[in-house]
Amino acid sequence: MGIFVGCVIGVVGIGLTVYGMLTGGKRDRAAVAALESALRQWAVAHGAGELHDVGDPASLVASWPQRRMDEVLLACHGHRRSGRFTVVAFLEHDEPANHHLLLIRLSVGGQLPAPSKPSGASRHGRRRWARETAAMLGYDDTATHMLEQAAAAVDGSLHLVRDQLCVLHCGLPRTAVRDLEPHPDALVSLLDSATDLAEQLSR
Fold this sequence. Notes:
Elements: H1 2-45, E1 52-53, H2 63-66, E2 71-80, E3 83-94, E4 97-107, H3 123-137, H4 141-152, E5 157-161, E6 164-170, H5 172-176, E7 177-178, E8 181-182, H6 185-201
Antiparallel strand pairs: 1-2, 2-3, 3-4, 4-6, 5-6, 7-8
Helix pairs in contact: 1-6, 3-4, 4-6
C-alpha cells in the first residue's frame, strides 16, 4: 500500500511539474506579446521612433538590477519626444519560483546632482523617495507635491542614476496576462505613469 501511495504521489508531482512548465511558458509568451503591443501603443502616443533590439541589456541599465537578469525575455530601446528609453523584461531565477521583472529606463532632462537609492515598491516608499528627490533638486512645495503624486502612481521601485529614471516592476505576467491571454492596457498605464514621472523630473 505504501509503495502504491508513493507512486501516485510521484505521478501527480510529475504531472503538476509538467503542467506548470507548459502553463508558465504560455504565460511568459503572452506577457511578452502584451508588452510588445503596449510598447507599440505607447510609442505612438509619445512620439517614439522605431524600436531597436538591445543586444546586451545589462550594459545599458543601472547597476542595481543587473545582477538579477538571469534570463531576458525582451529588450528594446529607442527615442521619444523627451529623450531616450530602454525597456527590458527578464526573469530572476530564485528557487522555488522565478521572479518576472520589467525594467523601464527613461532619460530625464539634465544631469542630476547625485544617484538616489531605490525607493522600494510600496506607495509610501515611492512618496518618501519623491520628497527626498525633490529636496535634492530644490523643488518648491507645489512641485514636490506633483512629484509625489507622479511617483505614487508608478507600480514599481524607483531609482535615479545620472540623467536616467529607472522603474523596476515586479510580476509581469500577473500584470500583463488574463486567462493566459495578453492584456496590454495595464502595461500601457505603467509606461504612461513612468513617463509622467520622468517629465516631472525634467522640470
